Amino acid sequence: MYGSGPVSGFQSIDDLDFGGLVVKTQEFAEVVDASGLGGAYQLGKFDGILGMAFPLLSVNSVPTAFQNLVDQKLVDEAMFAFYLGSSASDAGELVLGGTDSAHFTGEITWENLYSATYWEIQIVGMSVGGVSYVSAPTKAIVDSGTSILTGPSDVVQAIAKQLGAKEIIQGEYMLPCSYSKLPDLQFSIGSSVYTLSPADYLIPDGNLCLLGLMGMDIPAPTGPLWILGDVFMRKYYTVFDTANKRVGFALANHPAN
User: Fold this and answer.
1) Burial profile 92-116: b = 16 or more Cβ within 10 angstroms, e = fewer
2) Residue 185 to residues 168, 205, 225, 255: CA-CA distances in angstroms?
3) Widest distance between CA atoms in the chain
4) Assuming Cys at both sites, which of 47, 62, 122, 211 could form a disulfide with 27, CB separation 3.0 to 4.6 Å?
5) Is 116 within 8 Å of 219 (Cβ atoms)?
6) What gap in Å lies between CA 48 and CA 83, rounded to an integer?
7) Is 113 helix (H, G, I), strand (E, B) or coil?
8) Nearest-angstrom CA–CA distance, 46 and 62
9) Is the pTM of this model over 0.85?
10) Is residue 121 packed enough to be buried (19+ CB in 10 Å), middle (13-18) or exposed (0-12)?
């Protein structure tokens, strides 16, 4: 069962070539019926899903691919890091077993996990142009599998109204690409503030822009929560440290346009 719906198939074992690192006897699911995932999967240009969260979430307690990388001593450190490219000429990179200092500037700021299930942390504040929308510790998941940002629907609706965005379908918004007139989004995590400018959170789509923030209501006990997806991770180089159960952020070093 995924967030988008159910799948069915069978469980298999094979060696997994993971970026040139070969994991022996990796268990995995072969999906033969993905109809429960809906049209988005059928139209998507991908072949499967590789979970990078913690083994507690693994169906049938199957060891995850990264857990096996660590257990089989194929990586130097029990961490991996994402650099998400900003254009066709700016290639992204996933580092297994460490980080790549060429892709970030300054120091990595670490935040301990609130829960070692998903990569779950807490945000202690969120504001848009000085207007506060989160003022108490709130759960958030750092997730490379989510293209944009998500938050509780009522909060996102209020933010969209402030920005002058119009809802196109439930939870998704469009607005003029007024990069110089719109305010920044700021997330407070620990003692650090992470800023997204309009150039970071607007996604051009013809003559308008898609707001890179959509409403998504996740029921308790998992939610309510925010998801810091690719819109956030493209701005901030992100390191997932499984050994110490923490996430690290540093300003990504993108080439000048």
Assistant:
1) eeebbbebeeebbeeebbebebbeb
2) 21, 20, 17, 22
3) 54
4) 62
5) no
6) 21
7) coil
8) 22
9) yes
10) buried
Q: Which residue has the tokens 């059928």?
A: 42
Cβ–Cβ contacts within 10 Å for residue 175, how many?
17
For residues 212 and 179, the answer to whether their CB atoms sit within 8 Å is no
Segment 11-59, tens digit of pLDDT = 999 999 988 999 999 999 998 887 877 665 666 667 788 889 998 888 8
| Cβ contacts of 164 within 8 Å, gap of 6 or more | 175, 176
- Exposed / middle / buried, residue 145 (Cβ in 10 Å: 0-12, 13-18, 19+): middle
pLDDT tens track for 245-257 = 999 999 999 998 6
- Please give the Cα distance from 103 to 99 (Å, whole number): 9
- Report the C-alpha gap between 199 and 52 in whole angstroms: 28
CA distance 197 to 252: 14
Residue 220 structure tokens: 């308790």
The string of DSSP codes covering 143-155 is: -TT-SSEEE-HHH
The structure tokens listed for 188 are: 């407070």
The type of residue at 231 is V
Q: In angstroms, rounded to a whole number, what is the distance separating the alpha carbons of residues 44 and 34? A: 12
Task: Answer whether 16's CB lies under 8 Å from 65's CB.
Answer: yes
Segment holding 41, helix H or strand E: helix 39-43
Say which residue the tokens 């690409």 belong to: 177
Nearest to 7 by CA among 43, 45, 46, 48: 48
What six digits make up the tokens of 222? Answer: 């998992």
67: part of which helix (H) or strand (E)? helix 65-71
Amino acid identity, residue 54?
Answer: F
